[in-house]
Amino acid sequence: MSDLTASARPDALAAQPDLSEVGDWLTLLKPRVVSLVVLTGVVGLLVAPGRLPPALAIAAVLCIALGAGAAGAINMWYDRDIDARMKRTATRPIPAGRIAPGAALAYGVGLAMASVLIMGLATNWMAAGVLALSILFYVGVYTMWLKRRTSQNIVIGGAAGAFPPVIGWAAVTGHVTLEPLVLFAIIFFWTPPHFWALSLFAHADYERVGVPMLPVTHGAKETRKQVLVYTLVLLPLTLAPWALGFAGWAYAAAAVLLGAEFLRQSIAVYRDAQDAAGRSLTKDAPARKAFRYSLSYLGLLFIALAVDRMILG
């Protein structure tokens, strides 16, 4: 009996899935980015007038997640050359040699096509069209055109990440109105201070591979200034849902409180000069804190909108 058990063990082990390989395929989808995309997409779906049947709502959210993940996979395929030379990205599955570039591209394109097709069949073709536009914008406009050519890459390219609430809204209503465009604008103007805070402590990587992020082309001081400028533009804009009658006082109060902290963090970034003379930022540098807070800020802002609309009316 023990001989039979021993002889069977290698086959049993071979039949088990390689979880590390599964993890690599999931990594291609940029799950941390997808989680925020899904959250804003879900809020767009929840606050839209009307309701989808639960099964179709789940399908719509899944399509938003797959579409965002597909764009991330194609982005990793295209950027595999610079990813291999950047400390922050060198261990990604493609530059590390764990997934072949061609397989990653096929994976991304296949998921992108499936997400758009399923969205169209499950909800409507307006939502599918906006989803397709978001994928094409991230891959074609940001990744392939802007990222390596201009310091305004993240400003213009940031529109790609602003589409999810519009997609969610369109999935329910079949059209796009002013309300989801306001949510689009909030994410659009949130993206530069969020990403430039990151670029302040990752500028050495970008400089090494020739990506013209703002700290590389205009210096850290100008980048810190732009973080503050875009934050000052963003904060009044977050009150637009309340001003337009689309949200109530609960959302407005949350927007003010969250925005006050974002402003405080951005002022700290503006005043900090740790990055002078190319020095690396410490772990507790304001730019690092502002980057981490910006992630929480956007998520909490959209959650506040959903709570205000759905629970408080």
TrEMBL record:
<feature type="transmembrane region" description="Helical">
    <location>
        <begin position="227"/>
        <end position="244"/>
    </location>
</feature>
<keyword id="KW-0812">Transmembrane</keyword>
<keyword id="KW-0350">Heme biosynthesis</keyword>
<feature type="transmembrane region" description="Helical">
    <location>
        <begin position="290"/>
        <end position="307"/>
    </location>
</feature>
<dbReference type="InterPro" id="IPR000537">
    <property type="entry name" value="UbiA_prenyltransferase"/>
</dbReference>
<keyword id="KW-1133">Transmembrane helix</keyword>
<dbReference type="InterPro" id="IPR006369">
    <property type="entry name" value="Protohaem_IX_farnesylTrfase"/>
</dbReference>
<dbReference type="InterPro" id="IPR044878">
    <property type="entry name" value="UbiA_sf"/>
</dbReference>
<dbReference type="InterPro" id="IPR030470">
    <property type="entry name" value="UbiA_prenylTrfase_CS"/>
</dbReference>
<feature type="transmembrane region" description="Helical">
    <location>
        <begin position="184"/>
        <end position="206"/>
    </location>
</feature>
<feature type="transmembrane region" description="Helical">
    <location>
        <begin position="33"/>
        <end position="50"/>
    </location>
</feature>
<feature type="transmembrane region" description="Helical">
    <location>
        <begin position="153"/>
        <end position="172"/>
    </location>
</feature>
<feature type="transmembrane region" description="Helical">
    <location>
        <begin position="250"/>
        <end position="270"/>
    </location>
</feature>
<feature type="transmembrane region" description="Helical">
    <location>
        <begin position="99"/>
        <end position="119"/>
    </location>
</feature>
<feature type="transmembrane region" description="Helical">
    <location>
        <begin position="125"/>
        <end position="146"/>
    </location>
</feature>
<comment type="function">
    <text>Converts heme B (protoheme IX) to heme O by substitution of the vinyl group on carbon 2 of heme B porphyrin ring with a hydroxyethyl farnesyl side group.</text>
</comment>
<keyword id="KW-0808">Transferase</keyword>
<protein>
    <recommendedName>
        <fullName>Protoheme IX farnesyltransferase</fullName>
        <ecNumber>2.5.1.141</ecNumber>
    </recommendedName>
</protein>
<dbReference type="Pfam" id="PF01040">
    <property type="entry name" value="UbiA"/>
</dbReference>
<feature type="transmembrane region" description="Helical">
    <location>
        <begin position="56"/>
        <end position="78"/>
    </location>
</feature>
<keyword id="KW-0472">Membrane</keyword>
<comment type="pathway">
    <text>Porphyrin-containing compound metabolism; heme O biosynthesis; heme O from protoheme: step 1/1.</text>
</comment>
<keyword id="KW-1003">Cell membrane</keyword>
<comment type="similarity">
    <text>Belongs to the UbiA prenyltransferase family. Protoheme IX farnesyltransferase subfamily.</text>
</comment>
